[in-house]
Amino acid sequence: MAGHTRFATLVCSEIDGTRVAHTGDQIFFRDSDNLPYGPNSKYFTNHVYKNGLDIGCYRESFEHLAEFRPDLILTGHTQPYRPDDRWYEIVHQGAKDFDDIHQSLMSLGIEDVHFGAESQGAKPKPYQVHCPQGGTIELGGWVINPFPTEQKARLQLIGPADWEGNVIELDLSPREQKTIRVSITSPDGTKCRRQPVGLDLTVGNRPFRQVSEALVTIGYPLF
User: Fold this and answer.
1) Among candidates 124, 182, 115, 196, which has minimal Cα distance to 148?
2) Residue of 101, 112, 119, 108 lying closest to 52 (CA atoms)
3) Strand-strand pairing, 164-165 and 206-218
4) Does domain 122-218 bear CATH number 3.50.50.60?
5) Phi and psi dihedrals of 14, rounded to 5?
6) 75: closest CA among 93, 91, 63, 97?
7) Cα(147)–Cα(107) distance, rounded to whole angstroms?
8) pTM for the complete prediction?
9) Distance, CA of 132 to CA of 190 (rounded, Å)
10) Do residues 143 and 178 lie in contact, with contact meaning Cβ atoms separated by under 8 Å?
11) What ranges do the domains of the chain cover?
């Protein structure tokens, strides 16, 4: 259930004959009467780009809810509430508006060069790295081909001037997302707290520069 985060899960269950859906932080309403949902509610998609989202993600969430037809909605931050026909109309329209607005404002066409609505070309994991002894730090992650054609990607972690990041190259199919392993080595005796290292990306002949980062602590017992 992407939108608020790719790690979100829609939980649907039936308890004593009552259909209950837990939408987490995906769907919320603003209400002047301080209600989770009511006659004066205004819907908003609680999307977060860096957490992961796609065109169609809110439509998919709505379709699951419309099929299950919950009697009761639980969320991550509000009191439970009961949806009505108006609720389904609002959430359906909000999902459509989410797609329409992004597609009208962003270059997301079949022939365009883009990283999708999320707009992130590559991402190292984990974001926080603790290496008390120093040396070589290895990270996982992923990279996306923004082109509608096969391309070669080049990635390198960039840190302070005396750090050495290995260069990796890999072939990508059109729009393919592929897992990566990258590493960077700090000099002996390095001590730092939450030092940013950037992930530099080139796809084909186009440099996208540093598209994301990780934070590194070396030489200290705690991050």
Assistant:
1) 115
2) 119
3) unpaired
4) no
5) -115, 125
6) 91
7) 12
8) 0.82
9) 10
10) yes
11) 11-105, 122-218
